Amino acid sequence: MQLTLEFGGGLELLCDSVKIHNVNVEPQAEGKKLTMKHLLSWVRTNLIKERPEMFMKGDTVRPGVLVLVNDCDWELSGQLETVLEEKDAVVFISTLHGG
Amino acid sequence: MASEVVDATAAKPRGGRFCTVCNDRRPALKRPKTLEQICKECFYAVFEDEIHRVIVDNHLFKPGERIAIGASGGKDSTVLAYVLSELNIRHGYGLDLFLLSIDEGITGYRDDSLETVKRNEIQYGLPLKVVSYKELYGWTMDEIVKLIGLKNNCTFCGVFRRQALDRGAALLKVDKLVTGHNADDIAETVLLNILRGDIARLSRCTSITTGEDGPIPRCKPFKYTYEKEIVMYAYFKRLDYFSTECIYSPNAYRGFAREFIKDLERIRPRAILDIIKSGEDFRISTSTKMPEQGNCERCGYISSQKWCKACVLLEGLNRGLPKLGIGRTRGLNNESNKDMKETNGTKGLQSKQCGTLDF
């Protein structure tokens, strides 16, 4: 499944300072839907190069990291349970850097 | 009903509900303050209007005043500069707005963020003044770090920055200085001041305006504005801001209080406003002995000691004794130990302009 992932607010520093990543992520199992929960662990394994604790805490994003799916706050779409579809755009922004 | 029609034609039904304000468009975010689900357009309107209400209700400005916006190039000050210039025009505040930036002299960090502020100068049409540590103190942070290493460097930077903003504001001949401190920052400061038992700062830190008896009062129009909304606003509006951590303090944002506030927010977003309210409601017993505010005998800056902290630190640097004013038992001022201890204990927070205790 083709997805566009964007890292901002300083999170890009954790993935080689690249802000936008066009990626191909498959659901955990055949016939299953791709959820944010799975995407997060995929990102952590495949994109985050350093200090993963800046991005995640437990199985979700670290408090203070905002997540938008297709420009919509993931708190409106079920957070970890949000189901992703082909060509979705997911944005991660840290609020923890500088004023 | 009408909503079903829109629902069927929406490009991508997610969340399946409508903006609680206009009941017409799809919501784009959940407001931490109210838990309302609102669309981008209504969000811009309520976000700007709440700041306008805070400005009006607290009489932050008078027509004709010259106002400096402390601008670091980061999210808070960038959004503040954008929103203030919008509101100034929309509501006819009659303010002369300026951007005031401090160049600490940190290669690869401040030079880059200053580029952002220079773009903001053009984007928002606000005149920019940059004052540097080098011109004010004779030292850049790069030079200070070379001398003292990566321990306590944030103490120097924090102390110097506070004065630098005041001195820059004086050069601009402004009536007031506004900073981008947001609700999260203030809640964090309340907690830290309680944890340290710093009664003097606790009683000041929730004031929306401080230093009214001094030459240049400071105010915080974002006192009730959530960091989440500031970042969402900047993101949706594609505002140009800089977000790299300071190279001399890579873990600055890992402050314990900050993390705790963010954890609380996740459980109950109102907690941030509640902590601010608690801070406001603290009443300090009239018999409590508070430090007396005087002036530094050397530079005249406001100080509760013989010499202000910047002068003590500077004296140490110039005499080749950079630890002067840092340790618990050394220093020119007999009573400065308590203060020193605080700054040492929070050096991780000091580098973040809005996370310091310098209210």
Automatic annotation (TrEMBL), chain A:
Subcellular location: Cytoplasm
Modification 1-thioglycine occurs at: 99
Top-level taxonomic group: Eukaryota
InterPro entries cross-referenced by the UniProt entry: Beta-grasp_dom_sf (IPR012675), Mopterin_synth/thiamin_S_b (IPR016155), Urm1 (IPR015221)
Record PTM: C-terminal thiocarboxylation occurs in 2 steps, it is first acyl-adenylated (-COAMP) via the hesA/moeB/thiF part of the MOCS3/UBA4 homolog, then thiocarboxylated (-COSH) via the rhodanese domain of the MOCS3/UBA4 homolog.
Cellular-component GO terms for this entry: cytosol
Pathway(s) the chain acts in: tRNA modification; 5-methoxycarbonylmethyl-2-thiouridine-tRNA biosynthesis
Crosslinked positions (Glycyl lysine isopeptide (Gly-Lys) (interchain with K-? in acceptor proteins)): 99
Any Gene Ontology biological process: tRNA thio-modification
Keyword presence, tRNA processing: yes
Alphabetically ordered keywords of this record: Cytoplasm, Isopeptide bond, tRNA processing, Ubl conjugation pathway
CDD domains, alphabetized: Ubl_Urm1
Similarity comment: Belongs to the URM1 family.
Role summary: Acts as a sulfur carrier required for 2-thiolation of mcm(5)S(2)U at tRNA wobble positions of cytosolic tRNA(Lys), tRNA(Glu) and tRNA(Gln). Serves as sulfur donor in tRNA 2-thiolation reaction by being thiocarboxylated (-COSH) at its C-terminus by MOCS3. The sulfur is then transferred to tRNA to form 2-thiolation of mcm(5)S(2)U. Also acts as a ubiquitin-like protein (UBL) that is covalently conjugated via an isopeptide bond to lysine residues of target proteins.
Protein's recorded name: Ubiquitin-related modifier 1 homolog
Organism in which the protein naturally occurs: Sesamum indicum
Gene this chain is encoded by: LOC105176537
TrEMBL record, chain B:
Region listing for Disordered, in residue ranges: 332-359
Keyword Translocase on entry: no
Subcellular location: Cytoplasm
Pathway(s): tRNA modification; 5-methoxycarbonylmethyl-2-thiouridine-tRNA biosynthesis
Record's keyword terms, sorted: ATP-binding, Cytoplasm, Nucleotide-binding, RNA-binding, Transferase, tRNA processing, tRNA-binding
PROSITE patterns named among the record's database cross-references: UPF0021
Regions of compositional bias (Polar residues) in chain numbering: 345-359
Molecular-function GO term, any one: nucleotidyltransferase activity
EC code(s) of this entry: 2.7.7.-
UniProt key word Transferase: yes
Residues given in the record as ATP binding sites: 70-72, 76, 102, 180, 185
A GO CC annotation given for this chain: mitochondrion
Principal localisation: cytoplasm
Taxonomy, superkingdom: Eukaryota
Span of domain Cytoplasmic tRNA 2-thiolation protein 1 C-terminal: 294-324
Domain tRNA(Ile)-lysidine/2-thiocytidine synthase N-terminal: start-end pairs: 67-250
One of the protein's GO biological processes: protein urmylation
Membership in a protein family: Belongs to the TtcA family. CTU1/NCS6/ATPBD3 subfamily.
Protein task: Plays a central role in 2-thiolation of mcm(5)S(2)U at tRNA wobble positions of tRNA(Lys), tRNA(Glu) and tRNA(Gln). Directly binds tRNAs and probably acts by catalyzing adenylation of tRNAs, an intermediate required for 2-thiolation. It is unclear whether it acts as a sulfurtransferase that transfers sulfur from thiocarboxylated URM1 onto the uridine of tRNAs at wobble position.
Record-linked NCBIfam families: TIGR00269 family protein
Protein name, per record: Cytoplasmic tRNA 2-thiolation protein 1
Name of the gene this protein is made from: LOC105159378
